């Protein structure tokens, strides 16, 4: 459910941005007639896109264990931009429409900043890799990066996370998921090779 809504959110946000980019561009270029036509033509699709963007966003927010300050700033940006856009387009006010567009694009950017900050926080607090004990190292990586979603025992399933107790993937496959991400699981491409090995070994100990 979470993974599906994550995709719904991702694509409805993209469509939403595209619609706003088009409408804002038309307004700024004084193509008012075309703007009225486009607005009329896409009225229903736009309502569907806006609804699925907000509804999936609310679901993800309620079920996401990783929300920080940036998320709340993003939420405020989105909610301020909506009335600005409504008034801006209604009155043909370019400044309001442009401001609303900047806020919407900015909140999209904040999601990316949020991901980068998780990586930075991890790198700022390095793991002691001197231990000979791979499982112990793996546990440290796991606690710092994976537990928020997968839970202490691997079966918490937060944010749609797979149950690691039933995981049958080998090290190469796990390493692939970590470097590219999968569905709503972010990529952890900043983990070193030895950290990946260690966390994979640790996942092995979670199995039933
Ligand atoms: C933001 C939540 C989140 C975090 C943090 C997270 N995962 Fe995941 N993980 C998921 C989700 C969601 C899936 C299911 C992805 C899918 O199949 O669409 C998943 C799937 C997996 C799978 C595949 C399991 C299988 O059998 O298919 C592995 C392995 C895995 N995660 C390992 C890790 C490791 C190791 C870490 C820490 C470095 C980690 N995850 C951190 C959410 C998370």
Tell me what you see in this structure.
By secondary structure, the chain is mainly α. It has 2 domains: 2-123; 126-206, Cytochrome c-like domain (Cytochrome Bc1 Complex, Chain D, domain 2). It contains 9 helices and no strands. The protein has helices spanning 2-28, 32-41, 43-63, 69-91, 94-124, 134-145, 147-150, 171-180, 193-206. The longest helix has 31 residues, at 94-124. Heme C is lined by residues 3, 66, 145-146, 148-150, 159-162, 167, 169, 174, 177-178, 182-186, 188, 199. Heme C (HEC) binds next to helix 7 and helix 8.
Write the layout of secondary structure elements.
Elements: H1 2-28, H2 32-41, H3 43-63, H4 69-91, H5 94-124, H6 134-145, H7 147-150, H8 171-180, H9 193-206
Helix pairs in contact: 1-3, 1-5, 4-5, 6-9, 8-9
Heme C binds at residues 3, 66, 145-146, 148-150, 159-162, 167, 169, 174, 177-178, 182-186, 188, 199.
In short:
73% of the residues lie in helices and 0% in strands. It is an all-alpha fold.
Helical run tally: 9
Number of strands: 0
SS content category: mainly alpha
Q: Give the end-to-end Cα distance, rounded to a whole number of Å.
A: 24 Å
| Helix content, binned percent | over 70%
Which cofactor or ligand species appear? heme C
Give the overall pLDDT as a whole number. 88
Give the uncertain stretches in residue-range form.
none
General form: elongated
Q: What is the N-to-C order of secondary-structure elements (H for helix, E for strand)? A: HHHHHHHHH
Number of domains: 2
Radius of gyration, CA atoms, in whole angstroms: 21 Å
Largest sheet: none
Strand content: under 5%
């Amino acid at each position: 459910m979470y993974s599906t809504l994550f995709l719904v959110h991702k694509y409805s946000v993209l469509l939403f941005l595209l619609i706003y980019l088009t409408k804002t561009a038309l307004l700024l270029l004084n193509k008012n007639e075309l703007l009225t036509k486009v607005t009329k033509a896409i009225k229903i699709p736009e309502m569907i896109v806006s609804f699925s963007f907000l509804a999936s966003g609310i679901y993800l927010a309620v079920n996401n264990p990783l929300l920080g300050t940036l998320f709340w700033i993003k939420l405020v940006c989105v909610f301020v931009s909506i009335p600005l856009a409504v008034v801006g387009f209604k009155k043909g006010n370019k400044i309001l429409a442009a401001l609303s567009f900047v806020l919407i694009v900015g909140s999209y950017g904040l999601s990316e900043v949020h991901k980068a900050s998780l990586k930075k926080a991890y790198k700022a607090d390095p793991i002691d890799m001197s231990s000979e004990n791979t499982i112990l190292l793996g546990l440290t990586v796991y606690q710092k990066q994976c537990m928020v979603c997968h839970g202490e025992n691997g079966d918490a399933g937060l944010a749609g996370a797979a149950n690691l107790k039933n995981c049958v993937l080998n090290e190469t496959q796990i390493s692939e998921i970590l470097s590219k991400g999968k569905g709503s699981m972010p990529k952890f491409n900043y983990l070193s090779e030895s950290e990946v090995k260690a966390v994979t070994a640790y996942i092995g100990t979670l199995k039933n």
